[in-house]
Write a structure and sequence with these properties.
alpha/beta; 8 helices; 229 residues; 12% strand
């Protein structure tokens, strides 16, 4: 019988690749997405497409409201930065950082994993081609995993030894795309833009769009999701 894994699925390029990798490793995948007060629903529509295409056992969209706190361009009316240089993207933590988002998301994943009798959680964090988020670093994931193994009844009783899988942590965006394509991922189903149009067309100018386009360009490929002209 397949082992179960909870996979955090935003509908973006990275989380979709992480889901494909989990499936390739023989896991029965349970996808977890969040309606957390983000500025658009496009990514959730993408997550639903991806979960269906990759054949997840179940896909839950959990509702929480981080917009009550704000503090991010993704959960408030703060303007999304556009046309930043590579140096700018690697030099500071941008306003698209959502305070404690991965900590909140991993807590939900930990809870569902315990209910499912699973010891495996996949998250598509990346520490190379990323926008400087502190909760995407290896040391953060390692610390969370240590904490998580102290936090559950299943862990205390010896029925669970949680592992947080980060298969993309040390890959460039081009390497992530290449890995996903090897598993047959259709990136046309995904959405990565921080500020898409109401129809879901990516802006082509935010940090996430720049990193995504850079990855496809380095492979000599055209992104199947074409940004606004």
């Amino acid at each position: 019988m397949s082992k179960k894994a909870v996979v955090l699925l935003s509908g973006g390029l990275d989380s979709t690749t992480a889901l494909a990798i989990a499936k390739s490793e023989g896991f029965e995948c349970y996808a977890l997405s969040f309606r957390y007060g983000q500025r658009h629903a496009v990514e959730l529509e993408a997550a639903q497409r991806v979960a269906k295409a990759l054949g997840t056992a179940q896909h839950i969209i959990a509702g929480i409201d981080l917009r009550q706190f704000g503090g991010s361009a993704l959960t408030s009316d703060i303007q999304v930065p556009k046309d930043r240089s590579a140096n700018d993207m690697s030099g500071d933590i941008p306003v698209t950082y959502v305070p404690a988002r991965n900590t909140v998301f991993l807590s939900f994943a930990l809870a569902w994993a315990e209910v499912l009798g699973s010891s495996d959680v996949f998250i598509g964090v990346n520490a190379l081609d990323y926008s400087g988020y502190p909760d995407c670093r290896p040391e953060y994931i390692e610390a969370y995993e240590r904490m998580a193994n102290l936090a559950t009844k299943a862990g205390v009783e010896g029925r669970q030894r949680l592992r947080i899988h980060t298969p993309l942590i040390d890959l460039s965006k081009a390497q992530i795309i290449e890995r996903g394509l090897a598993f047959g991922v259709d990136y046309g189903l995904t959405s990565s833009c921080y500020d898409p149009s109401p129809a879901g067309v990516p802006c082509g100018r935010c940090d996430s769009c720049h990193l995504r386009l850079k990855g496809f360009r380095e492979l000599g490929l055209i992104d199947p999701v074409r940004p606004a002209a």
